[in-house]
Amino acid sequence: MDRIPGLLSGASERALIVEDDPRVASLHRAFLEAEGLKVVGVAESLEAALEALDLGPDLVLLDLYLPDGHGLDLLPALGGLYTVVITAAKDVPTVERALLGGAMDYIVKPFGRARLREALARYRAFRSLRAKERVSQEDLDRFLARRRIQKGLDPQTSERILFCLREGEKTVEEVATALGLSRVTAWRYLEALRLEGRVRAEPVHGGPGRPSRVYRLEG
Length: 219
Description:
By secondary structure, the protein is α/β, with parallel strands linked by helices. It contains 8 helices and 9 strands.
């Protein structure tokens, strides 16, 4: 099992990859590290995955076809961990067992990077609930709505905007300039992210011609 730390050793989001194909595992790792997560381990078997749970992951990418058993047999041990199943299996009994067994997302191979980025966005939306002492029905509906991407919005662009806001609060104009977007497009995505509860808008008190609000990451 690979225990080399991720590039961002101080990252608060920690991921475990359970995948027996080294090439696929390497691609997963590169993606997660580029998105700011710390990969605490890559497990190539059920036994190695159980051992790796001691490393304290928050997110688990779980393959199902492993040399010493079926990945779904690991689900009971993953209680409390956000688990994304990534597999070629697409038969209904397997999908049903995964989702009813506690998996929060299910991705069928082959897939594009946008789909994995969407899964990561859902994971982060779920984690954002931890910042709240209590959640409202609106909070829950907003999170569950992450399963339905808004028509006409690109998940990759949304994630680029969120990454941009990690540097600090920004106006619509600053986001548009940083990402090469039109002002209208930047505003549209920022408002969609605000409605999802992932960013918040705050008024700016300034003179005439000053931006009326800035956006910052929620929580």
